[in-house]
Amino acid sequence: MRAGLFAAACAACLMLLAPLAGPAAAQGPETGQAPGAGQGLGFNTGQVVSPLLTIDPDVLFSGTLYGQRIQEELRDQTEALAAENREMEAQLTEEEQSLTRRRPTMQADAFRAEARAFDARVQQIRNEQDAKERALQQIVAQGRDAFVRDASPVLGRMMLERGAAVILDRRNVFLAVGALDITQEAIARVDEALGAGDPGATTLQTGPEAPVDVPLEAPEEDSGAEATPPAE
After folding, report:
1. Packing angle between helix 65-102 and helix 183-194, nearest 10 degrees?
2. Angle, to 10 degrees, between the axis of helix 108-162 and the axis of helix 65-102?
3. C-beta of residue 212 within 8 angstroms of C-beta of residue 172
4. What CA–CA distance (Å, rounded) separates 69 from 75?
5. How far apart, in Å, do the first and last CA atoms of the chain sit?
6. pTM of this structure
7. Which residues contact 232 (CB under 8 A, 6 or more apart)?
8. What is the pLDDT of residue 165?
9. S-S: 159 plus which of 89, 153, 164, 190, CB 3.0-4.6 Å?
10. Span 43-100, pLDDT tens digits
């Protein structure tokens, strides 16, 4: 008699709990999704729902059309600056050799004056080219910042779809389930939403007309880096 009453009570409890569980409860273990999570919001029930997701920022940047465009622009500008440096180095070498050849025919005062002017020109050019290199490094950082800014809304939507509150850098995670990594999906989503981004947004001007931030006072002389005319 007591066994029958207990069975009837269990059956009544199951009937009361059934409306709360709903159909999602039956499929939760197969999808890895919390029972009822994302219902009515159009979420992909094949995705893992987790408060934490992981991503590899470097792979995301280099794998997207946006990041590849920035890398290509900066690579071209780096090569152009290197070519400009080589050209100026060859020009200064020629000027130094010319001064050396003309030295026997010059007055000592005239030679010293021209040698000082040449050293000042070498220092100025070095400062200008160093400023361009610093500007290029800043452009690299700005390009990545622009990518993160533009890609953040896309990643934010992915967080909402998966019920996540945080996306962690995968390189700093000791151990995680592979399904939590969204790098490849994020690449596809960013490409779909942003394409290659804004071409020309990261551009370094080179050549003699390029604006540079040169210190008002030249740094202390470095005899190992300057072109020094022959001693009298």
Report:
1. 80
2. 170
3. no
4. 10
5. 122
6. 0.59
7. 108, 111, 112
8. 92
9. 164
10. 444 566 778 999 999 999 999 999 999 999 999 999 999 999 999 999 999 999 999 9
Phi-psi region of 42 (alpha: psi -120 to 50; beta: other; left: phi over 0): left
What is the distance between the alpha carbons of residues 13 and 117, in angstroms, rounded to a whole number? 97
**Do the beta carbons of residue 20 and residue 6 sit within 8 Å?**
no
Tokens found for residue 152: 């953040």
